[in-house]
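Notes from hallway chat w/ T.B., transcribed later so I don't forget. T.B. wanted the structure written out for a chain they're using in a teaching module, and asked if we could keep both sequence and structure tokens in one place. Agreed to drop them here.
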Amino acid sequence: MIRRDDVIAGYEELLGRAPESDDVISAHQASYINVQAFRASLRQSLEYQTKNGISASDPASSAQPSNWREGKTITPGNLDSFIASSDNLGPPGSPEVEEFWRSMRYVPQAKVNQNLDPFGEEYVAQQIAIYREISRRGIDQHSNELTDFTMADHIAGANPYTHQPPTSVALHVGRVSRAIQYSGLQIGDHVLDMGCGWGASCELMAFCGLEVTGLDINPHFVELVNTRAKRIGHKVSAVQGSFESIPGDGLYDAALYYESLHHAIKPWETLSLVHSRLKPGGKLMLAGEPVNEIWKHWGIRTDPLSIYCIRKFGWFESGWSADFISKCVKRSGFDVKHFAEETSSIGWIMIARKAG
């Protein structure tokens, strides 16, 4: 595995920019055993060739990989080819990969009866079978959902993402800000940030005058959030836990899931647990979550980026219809107060309230 610094240096020297995200850096680290192979892949990318005036007629610059012969359908049989062809073009988010992925969809081999009870064990088992078909591993979120990173870089950064471009950081800030705006929370209210990850949502809520407890399954994220909070002076603390286990017995004024609930295998169960940890009238905030019509109710997302992340990293990537996630929230004891799709790429935001 190559070093993180090798990836960053390669991008800056050959492409004149920083990598898009830590996930992209991790993907490169996992894909290449030496720096020479990694740099060769960057030189073969359309971005590098365009930047250096290499003719677009050069076969190496084609946005359609020469070893891909499967049209626009990803299947269990060509998953490895899909991953290799994507990596040969560049990182996720690059123009050439986006062009390659355009209109692609995964066609699962495992069958799903969408007339089954979507909350029932039989339906859940069928969706897990699709996950295993794609990932070729069992579900172990204590291992598969972890992210490796260089702690010092993220502690010192202006924001905990550190290497994401300003446009991406602004997107995250916009999503969380909208949820806070619609929530009706007051200065000093205590928010539980479920699956807080890097902690950007924790920091933004603290900046707005809220007290925040972040929860994450990754102990390194917990360390990062606590160290940055101490450095900045925010009223933020983080604890290690999971969607199935929230440490302590205190009650909160609100709970936020930002880009995290879709990693829950049974979202209705974690929502019920959070409901029990909120004060009467407590608020539930969902933002940056995948609401779509891929499945009648819910299931593994079949877009290229989700398939890439499931196959390469083992992440559990699900999504739900608007009707189904509304039912999950109501089933867990909340009244939905706001649920709408935001403009542009802000996505869906839901605010719900615990009765009482």
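Follow-up for T.B.: Confidence is low (pLDDT under 50) at residues 56-63. Might be a good example for the class.
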